[in-house]
Design a protein that fits this description.
The complex is a heterodimer of chains A (about 270) and B (about 325).
Chain A: H1 2-17, H2 20-43, H3 51-74, H4 76-84, H5 86-90, H6 97-129, H7 134-159, H8 165-193, H9 200-205, H10 211-223, H11 226-231, H12 241-264
Chain B: E1 2-11, E2 14-24, E3 29-33, H1 40-48, E4 55-60, E5 63-64, H2 69-75, E6 76-79, H3 91-101, H4 106-119, H5 135-147, E7 153-157, H6 165-179, E8 183-188, H7 192-197, E9 200-205, E10 208-213, H8 215-220, E11 228-233, H9 238-246, E12 251-258, E13 263-270, H10 277-287, E14 290-296, H11 301-320
Parallel strand pairs in B: 3-8, 3-9, 6-7, 7-8
Antiparallel strand pairs in B: 1-2, 1-4, 4-5, 9-10, 11-13, 11-14, 12-13
Helix pairs in contact in B: 3-4, 4-5
The chains are: A mainly alpha (about 270), B alpha/beta (about 325).
Bound molecules: adenosine-5'-diphosphate and magnesium ion (MG).
């Protein structure tokens, strides 16, 4: 147990020391504040701020940026140590490979949580002072962390492969482009190309291959009411909360298991 | 304490380490010599757990690295090539991290860290980021991490590489100090290191062991072993002097080289097993030569090294064609 925590602590402190947390938290906070204020401004009426608009813009920001943060946080985690030679050192200590992987993972998840917490705290205070509920903001924080966690875990798994960092960075950014930016466009393209003849089973299940979509559905399902879903034209095509949770748990755990396995066979 | 049994490592089709076996006992310092790319680091990485062997095993105090990796790693201290460390940490933080990883806590961890710091004289820099330290101090941080738990086995990959002569001397002294209670393996491509610290030497090239013996046995392989090095100040013809030296009954051959203004150096190689110093000395006296230097050579290690390691690549070349 001590080893898990020690590895986690080191990973966490590394990111505090090298300024990652501060730099990312501040940039995130600036974006989030702009969106919050803009969102509140939309309604025109200060004090009766439109929760939905602000939260929806903020969750878009989260949806696009947080997966990238997760990937950037994770891809370097093992690869960087390999390149610096410290992985050689770490593996010569009486500590198992899954202690290294899981320890690092815990540390990185904490980095992610603290960064997002700091990034969202100011917009939260602004939002609250305009009469919004703390529950929704908390849900946003937790779901952002979960979204980042999934991509972080994917990148951690990639990081265990003996590839160069530049290659891993390329793959990570590619993954972000495909899953976060292009997936929706591709999906719509698919619908158009098949002129709506795609079977319902495919349409309903294609989202399971993309953890970003799954998490966005979970956000929509839990943070907004039915009217938003209707506005987005998504009624009927969103998987239920329960299956979303199961799918997301698998997406969170599987890469970690794969990473630990890959490490032990190094 | 260290028993290497037929260790082999393939990287794809390339065999980096080829069926290596050796043993190291307590009190021994084994010099692991070989040209770059010989497979020294790969062998060490297999012993210390970074790389899994393709074939073979290593037993540390009777325990296999394959069957009991954790227990084996408790007994080994390892300094990887280039002494890697976390650049943002200070030596103090780094050593504490390692103490905790090794399972020491509280006062126990403090004592271990402090002892290691004292042993390698790190006191003056323990709170500076490792990144800002000089090469010599970085190497000491690496050494401190390797000896933190006072291991029975120490494995050091090129511990003096890239250091200045004083720093090299310090590291060697440290190794010698620790030699008595431990079994130590030191890899190097610096031959002088062998006589300076090692009680035994193994030479490998292209993954194979080509020599295993004491440093003296290694020197004895040199054709310059027991040769006499004679430096003369003379205006005479070098070949004439060489001819005179060749008349000595115990000389097998003589070589010479210009060594500056009116200076000529001669190497007089003796026949096997005889000493030739007195003969040379008497000849010099009877000819009234101005002798600037006269001494017996141990043997030129780089000659032996080149001899051993290149003959193997010739052999390989023959195999391939
Ligand atoms: N991870 C690896 N993948 C492929 N080849 C490797 C790897 N590590 C080492 N090698 C090759 O194995 C050989 C031995 O390398 P190494 O053990 O580092 O030699 P040394 O330490 O004696 O200089 C070299 O030819 C090197 O290129
Ligand atoms: Mg090497």
């Amino acid at each position: 147990m001590q080893q898990y925590l020690e590895v986690a602590k080191k990973e966490f402190l590394d990111h505090i020391r090298n300024g990652w947390v501060i730099a990312i938290a501040i940039s995130f906070m600036v974006f989030a504040c702009i969106i919050t204020l803009a969102g509140l401004g939309f309604t025109g009426e200060v004090g009766v701020g439109d929760n939905k608009t602000t939260l929806m813009s903020l969750s878009s920001l989260v949806f696009y940026l947080v997966p990238l943060l997760g990937l950037l946080l994770g891809y370097d985690s093992i690869a960087g140590e390999r390149e610096r030679g410290t992985l050689d050192l770490l593996l010569s200590y009486p500590i198992s490979t899954h202690q290294i992987i899981v320890g690092k993972w815990i540390g990185l998840v904490c980095v992610l949580f603290v960064t997002l917490f700091l990034g969202l705290i100011v917009p939260t205070i602004i939002g609250l002072s305009f009469g919004q509920t703390i529950g929704q903001w908390f849900a946003l924080l937790m779901m952002s962390t979960w979204l980042g966690l999934i991509f972080l875990t994917l990148a951690l798994w990639l990081s265990t492969y003996p590839w160069e960092r530049a290659k891993l960075l390329g793959i990570s950014i590619g993954l972000w482009l495909v899953l976060v930016i292009l997936f929706d466009v591709g999906f719509i393209g698919l619908l158009v190309a098949t002129s709506g003849e795609l079977s319902n089973t495919i349409v309903e299940n294609i989202f399971y291959i993309n953890p970003a979509s799954l998490l966005r559905f979970l956000m929509i399902q839990t943070m907004f009411d039915q009217s938003v879903i209707n506005e987005l034209g998504l009624q009927g095509s969103i998987p239920g909360v329960f299956s979303l949770l199961i799918a997301l748990l698998i997406w969170s755990a599987l890469p970690l298991v794969l990473a630990a396995r890959k490490m032990s066979r190094y | 304490m260290i028993n290497i049994e037929k260790l082999t490592k393939d990287f794809g089709p390339f065999r980096a380490v080829d069926d290596i076996s050796f043993e190291v006992k307590k009190g021994e310092v084994l010099g692991f010599l070989g040209p770059n790319g010989a497979g020294k680091s790969t062998t060490m990485k297999m012993i210390t757990g970074f790389i899994t062997p393709t074939k073979g095993d290593a037993k540390i105090c009777g325990e296999s690295i394959l069957d009991a990796p954790i227990s084996v790693k408790q007994k080994i201290g390892y300094l990887p090539e280039g002494a890697p460390a976390y650049p943002d940490m200070t030596p103090f933080e780094f050593l504490h991290f390692i103490a905790e990883i090794r399972g020491f806590t509280g006062e126990d961890a403090n004592v271990k860290v402090n002892n290691a710091i004292k042993k390698v004289n790190l006191e003056s820099v323990i709170h500076k980021p490792i990144d800002n330290l000089s090469k010599g101090f970085k190497r000491r941080v690496g050494l401190a991490q390797a000896i933190l738990h006072d291991p029975e086995i120490l494995i050091m990959d090129e511990p003096t590489d890239g250091l200045d002569p004083n720093q090299k001397h310090e590291v060697r002294e440290l190794i010698k100090q620790m030699a008595k209670e431990k079994a130590i393996v030191v890899s190097t491509h610096i031959l002088e290191e062998v006589h300076a610290v090692c009680s035994r030497a193994i030479i490998i090239a292209q993954g194979k062991i080509l020599f295993d013996g004491t440093p003296d046995e290694l020197s004895a392989r040199s054709s310059f072993h027991n040769a006499v090095n004679l430096l003369l100040e003379t205006k005479d013809d070098a070949l004439a002097i060489e001819a005179k030296l060749n008349t000595l009954s115990h000389a097998s051959s003589v070589e010479h080289a210009a060594a500056g203004d009116n200076l000529i150096r001669f190497f007089v190689k003796p026949k096997k097993g005889v000493s030739i110093l007195n003969d040379v000395n008497e000849l010099a006296a009877s000819n009234h030569w101005t002798v600037k230097e006269l001494h017996v050579m141990e043997g030129q290690l780089d000659e032996v090294f080149r001899d051993i390691t290149t003959s193997s690549s010739d052999a390989k070349g023959v195999q391939l064609t």
